[in-house]
Amino acid sequence: MTGPSSLAARAIVAASSSARLKEAVTRAPVTRSVVERFVAGEAEDDGVRAARSLAGSGLRVSLDHLGEFTSDPEVIRAATAATVSMLRRLAAEGLAPACEVSVKLTALGLDVGRSVALDNAYAVVAAAREAGTTVTCDMEDSTRTDRTLDVVRELRAEEPSVGVVLQAMLRRTESDARDLAHAGSRVRLCKGAYAEPESVAFPSRAEVDASYARSLGILMRGQGYPMVATHDPRFVDLGERLVKEHGRGADTYEFQMLYGIRPGEQLALAGRGHTVRVYVPYGKDWYGYLMRRLAERPANVAFFVRALATRS
Ligand SMILES: Cc1cc2nc3c(=O)[nH]c(=O)nc-3n(C[C@H](O)[C@H](O)[C@H](O)COP(=O)(O)OP(=O)(O)OC[C@H]3O[C@@H](n4cnc5c(N)ncnc54)[C@H](O)[C@@H]3O)c2cc1C
Q1: Residue ranges making up the domain that contains 90
Q2: Average pLDDT taken over every residue of the chain
Q3: Total count of domains within the chain
Q4: Exposure of 45 in the CB half-sphere (CA atoms within 13 A)
Q5: Mind listing the pLDDT tens digit for each residue in 148-174?
Q6: Which residues line the pocket of ligand 1, CB cutoff 6 A?
Q7: Whose CA is closest to 102, among 37, 148, 56?
Q8: Are residues 258 and 297 in the same domain?
Q9: Helices 205-221 and 173-180, interaxial angle, to 10°?
Q10: Can you give the pLDDT at residue 216?
Q11: 102: Cβ–Cβ under 8 A, 6 or more apart, which residues?
Q12: What angle do the packed helices 287-295 and 31-38 form, to 10 degrees?
């Protein structure tokens, strides 16, 4: 398996599917403060409050109603309704178009079937259009990459502004970047947060980095709208250099970072004239998201494991 670097990090991502670990983490007293760092809160109001505050400081926002990997029709229906409701709220509060939504297609029914995900995603896209804002489809693990790209292709036939995500850790990404670097195409490039087998993903950090640099070059040279999603100072620098080199105007690309991570750099980048969007997760189903954030940072993992081990 490859994925977020360090053995401990990979172990966390792999172990996060264990029901026992989930229960221990969810119950641990230390969890609440860690969750608060990365998640805006459990209610729609919490997401709106965070969005209003970020938009007030000149940043854009992508709100994500947490939830993923479900086949439960009731959960899928509720997830779709929650995102539609958030879009109406953004319009009512005057927060669109600065604030959009991100969706995970497995929350909208991808694991049940293509047509279920597509119907629900159409409902979200229609609500976004009415609100005057956009939708970006997150990318999940590699067993779902083709199905996600297929649904996005279909959605774009109806609404070309629908955004898609590519993960530099995947061997296929450079080729996908070439296919998607066309006019009007909003593409978020990230490193990738899922544990993947070496057959599909680069095993070393250096190879993932090289893939990120190559794919970003393709997107920046292309006709689309690159969304540079990283906290890594080297790729923020590269993004800024490529913007300059290709003479891109501030409305033809953006930088993206996650809520709670490098907030000072988010403002500094915006201060240098770049469009910066913050990905803001909210909702009750924060477990999987939290585990991926912990896995990205060995220091967070060590701290968390120690706290869990010493709880009485
Ligand atoms: C806006 C956005 C959307 C994303 N969407 C997706 C998606 O759809 N699919 C997907 O697979 N992945 C997604 N990701 C996650 C991404 O794939 C990476 O896992 C994540 O961004 C960490 O990689 P990095 O480029 O920030 O570099 P890293 O090398 O991980 O981090 C660089 C530096 O950033 C800081 N940092 C990074 N992570 C943390 C953290 N958790 N806690 C504290 N500090 C940290 C540290 O200073 C670190 O040294 C998204 C990321 C962003 C920013």
Answers
A1: 42-283
A2: 93
A3: 2
A4: 0
A5: 999 999 999 999 999 999 999 999 999
A6: 138-139, 165, 167, 188, 190-194, 229-232, 256-258, 261-262, 279, 293, 296-297, 300
A7: 148
A8: no
A9: 10
A10: 98
A11: 62, 63, 64, 135, 136, 137, 138, 279
A12: 80
* pLDDT per position as a tens digit, 108-146: 999 999 999 999 999 999 999 999 999 999 999 999 999
Helix (H, G, I), strand (E, B) or coil at 264: helix
Q: Are strands 60-65 and 276-282 parallel, antiparallel or unpaired?
A: parallel
Task: Give the mutation target among 231, 266, 279, 289 for probing the ligand 1 site: most ligand atoms within 8 A of CB.
Answer: 231
Residue with structure tokens 């296919």?
Answer: 179
pTM for this structure? 0.94
Instruction: Please provide residue 303's backbone torsions phi and psi, each rounded to the nearest 5 degrees.
Output: -60, -45
The C-alpha atoms of residue 284 and residue 175 are separated, in whole angstroms, by 36
Q: Smallest Cα–Cα separation from 257: which of 49, 60, 95, 25?
A: 60
- Of 152, 140, 150, the residue nearest 196 (C-alpha): 140
Q: What is the CATH number of the domain that holds 209?
A: 3.20.20.220
- Indicate if 278 and 155 belong to the same structural domain: yes
Taking the C-alpha atoms of residue 299 and residue 3, their distance in angstroms, rounded to an integer, is 17
Phi, psi dihedral angles at 227 (to 5 degrees) = -120, 105
Shared domain for 13 and 105, answered yes or no, is no
Cα separation of 43 and 55, whole Å? 19
On whether the CB atoms of residues 270 and 54 are closer than 8 A, the answer is: no
